[in-house]
Design a protein that fits this description.
The complex is a heterotrimer of chains A (323), B (332) and C (345).
Chain A (H helix, E strand, L loop, with lengths): L6 H26 L14 H8 L7 E3 L5 H6 L4 H9 L32 H14 L6 E6 L6 H12 L4 E7 L2 E2 L2 E2 L13 H4 L3 E5 L3 H16 L5 E6 L19 H8 L3 H11 L5 H24 L15
Helix pairs in contact in A: 1-2, 1-10, 1-11, 2-8, 4-11, 5-6
Chain B lengths: L9 E3 H15 L3 E5 L15 H5 L4 E3 L4 H13 L3 E8 L7 H8 L2 H4 L9 E6 L14 H5 L5 E4 L3 H13 L4 E6 L6 E3 L13 E4 L4 E5 L3 H13 L5 E5 L2 E3 L3 H11 L2 E8 L4 H13 L8 E5 L8 H5 L5 H12 L2
Chain C lengths: L3 E5 L8 H4 L7 H17 L4 E4 L6 H8 L4 E4 L8 H13 L4 E6 L1 H10 L4 E6 L12 H12 L5 H4 E3 L2 E6 L5 E3 L2 E5 L15 E6 L9 H8 L8 E19 L2 E14 L4 E4 L2 E5 L2 E6 L4 E7 L4 E3 L1 H10 L20 H6 L1
Parallel strand pairs in C: 1-2, 1-4, 2-3, 4-5, 5-17
Antiparallel strand pairs in C: 6-17, 7-8, 7-16, 9-10, 9-14, 10-11, 11-12, 13-16, 14-15
Helix pairs in contact in C: 2-3, 2-6, 4-5, 6-9
Chain lengths: 323, 332, 345
Amino acid sequence: MSSEITDDILLDIHRRMVRIRTFEERAGKMMEDGKIPGALHLYVGQEAVASGVMVHLSDQDYITSTHRGHGHLIAKGGEFTYMFAELYGKATGYCKGKGGSMHISNLDLGMLGANGIVGGGPPIAMGAAFSCKFRKTSNVSISFFGDGASNEGAFHEAANMAALYKLPCVFVCENNGYGEYTPQANHQAIVDVADRAPGYGMPGVVVDGMDPIAVHEAAGEAIARAREGGGPTLLECKTYRYYDHVGVRGMGLSYRTDEEVEQWRLKDPIVNFEARLAEQGVLTPEAAEAVHEAARKDVDAGIEFAEASPNPDPAAVTEDVYA
Amino acid sequence: MAEPQPKPRELAYVAAIAEGVRTVMQEQPDAFVAGEDVAEAGGVYGYYNGILKEFGPERVFDTPISEEGIVGLGVGAAATGCRPIIDVMFMDFMGECMDEIANQLAKMRYMFGGRATLPVTILSMAGAGASLAAQHSQSLEAWICHLPGLKVVMACTPYDAKGLIISAARDDNPVIVVLNKMSLAMMGPVPEEPYTVPIGEANVVRGGSNYTIISFGRMVHEALAAATQLEELGIDAEVIDLRSLQPLDSAAVVASVRKTHRAMVVHEAVRFGGFGGEIAAQIQEQAFDYLDAPVARVGAPFSPVPFSPVLEANYVPNADRIVAEAKQQLGL
Amino acid sequence: MSLFGVVANPASGKDVRRLVARASVFDNQEKQAIVERVLIGAEAAGASAFAYLNDPNGIVASAVRENRRLCAKPLDATQTRTALDTITAARALRDLGCSVVITLGGDGTNRAVALGWPDAPLIPLSTGTNNVFPRMTEATLAGAAAGLIASGQIELREVAAQQKATHVAVADERPDLALIDAVLSRERFVGARALLHPEQLDTALLTRAEPAAVGIAAIGGLLHPLSEDADEGLLLRFGPGGERVRAPIAPGLYKTVEVAECRAVQTDERVAAKGPGVLAFDGERDRSLKPDQPIEMRVARTGPWVVDIRQTLELAARKGLFRMEAPGARRKTAGHEMAGHNRRA
């Protein structure tokens, strides 16, 4: 059983959440302004999940992400310079401009990629968990996926195999209530994805995904269990994406009500966390503002780096296909 | 008189596969074998017999019947430092794992800007002729040759089977080794020591002067038989076994056609949309002025693989059909 | 004839104790099946209508779709996916004059009902993690007991006993209550809610201390058993200098706990403590206390009335409430093979 959370960890979680929010808000705006090509799936609203999980991990621990993957990379330590460069499609990006938002990755940080295929991540995370065990490390592999992906066969196969081989794998379901534009009630007969866990032979836990401490506690237990050889866990975090499936439009959407969005915003992971930290004397409002300001500066620097960076050489289109 | 050469050791195709896998497992501590029935059962065709005993359950293990999971396991493990050997029992089952093959395995290196290395070897069994019908008999190499990032090889002899498996496993790219179930009992010389068959180099298995048959997989043997028959018609056919479809040794093909001026492509897969179309196109692009006749193509008819032996015999290309097609092509 | 109520907590049986302990996952399909059996039992015993918390997971709503013979009324309650939904549902049930409420959950679920309706008449079914208050009972029979009470064939007061509650007064803030245990822990955050760090425990006031239970009640129970019938509570002050006890603080999880003081307290005797810390009620961390913020706790027999199912059905048997008329006898209510109707006919 993990010990109680320290102030350092609280501040670390806070910083990661603020960095995600700041990056995403800005990136979304730049997509709107036409500066970033393609489609962005923003992580705003779900910050507590990535941050609460990732503070337990080192660079040697692996994660797989989703099409909504910026938050996972930021929480895993991704640098804004290379991230913005990638979103701009520049040669200096994490993927040399070949992956973009939906494939952003950094293997040095153990981040095995965002993934444009819903359900593409869980089998890869399971494979990385196998690798951790095969190479006799105490590292773990985390698969982030959504309620929508939980209906993919790939998730089912990965969950079954992870439990079968008792792999150090944690399946973190970020249940934001929608598979793209389809509400959960229209895509599965259950509400708690964690209900499926016993069917795979692993524990299933539901936590409040808007509460970083709740996520941190539950993820800590699941990760410790995985490191000790106890096998996988299905950890379901109830959360919400503030914006549309793609892009920055949050309100006035046909498939959900504005009231629903407002209700979830009352649970905002950053606002509420800052209030609690202030109450506990861990973080003053001034200190919190300094964290926001630092994140904004990092975003500015990231954008500056991206804009000053060279485009890829057009001839590079066929490079990096093979080793 | 010189001493008579000792007869080289002969092995069956199935045993050569096994020896290739064993060699790789001995060479590479990060290699493991995962697939359906590969451990306890030794594989449905027996070419993993003894592998479990020699290398133990941590390195050789049975998986659930979950092709997407199995290939995904290979992708995740390879991206994090292992060198997986993944068995996809029948090539027909690639439909089950095509996302992992096409969208993850093939593309991960490129999507990540060259910063991922995926040394995955996939062994898979193709081929009709055993009355296994439409879902256990197909040759689907066209599917996977269309995917940048993959290498695709096909072994038609015991020698090539062992050598290509070793080359595939030593390669830092994902390589799919397509084997043929009708060749399992075929005997052929196989050196005991490790050796490689280079990926990307075609093999001229029969020299010829005025006709080129380009083939791969089990059809190479039918092409050779056809070449013998064609001799009677005054046709001296060169037979090229591509061995590697991706990358493709276009140079070997073009050099031969420039010499012989007439070409035919033979494969077991359905002719329409098959890999033969790519080869024919490359020949006309690079040797148009040398051609004395249109490039002929022999492949399976446009239907699923049938069950009945009578129907199946009329489905799979053979030497007689190759000869007939050549006669028609050449107006003989 | 009155309504009975059904409150099924969709969140019960799913928290982190599945992981740290080996608590059972209570999936919602099982909860739905339990509700279906409740409705069948209630119908067989003569009930005709019920009101329910329309939980966001649709547990009861799904069961209603399977059983349209009873008149089902969804309650006007919040849908926040928090305890507030249960609290507001309990208030609505009280306002409707509901005669008895079947709850599906653990100690925390029943506490939430009591927050909305302190002396609610309850038949608590266990689908939770810590289950000192509810019992494992076959839902069909719980439904039958509810049906007998709702149809007026059995008087609640004949078969129910009022439970104790621990009342907690928090300086400058709303009061609170626990049905089994109110605990002050030195942890700082509510987090994943489960109370899993015994070294952080400070003070607990128990309404009952059961050797055959899991949770904080077990710590007291293994030192100083105290039944639900005794008109007193048990105070535990944690820390060195007293006893050390090995107790199951969650399903599948024994911990050694140091108890500096353990003594019975009379009903309405006030026990003081103060922050900082977290107040946990019935096994779950619930709210934070500021440094030096005082609280006062007391045990009183003011809690819910809990129906004894066995006693209810024994009484029904004695009254012959399930006896059917002989074949061929005149049937007043065709197609309604329920004991109550036939008897009254």
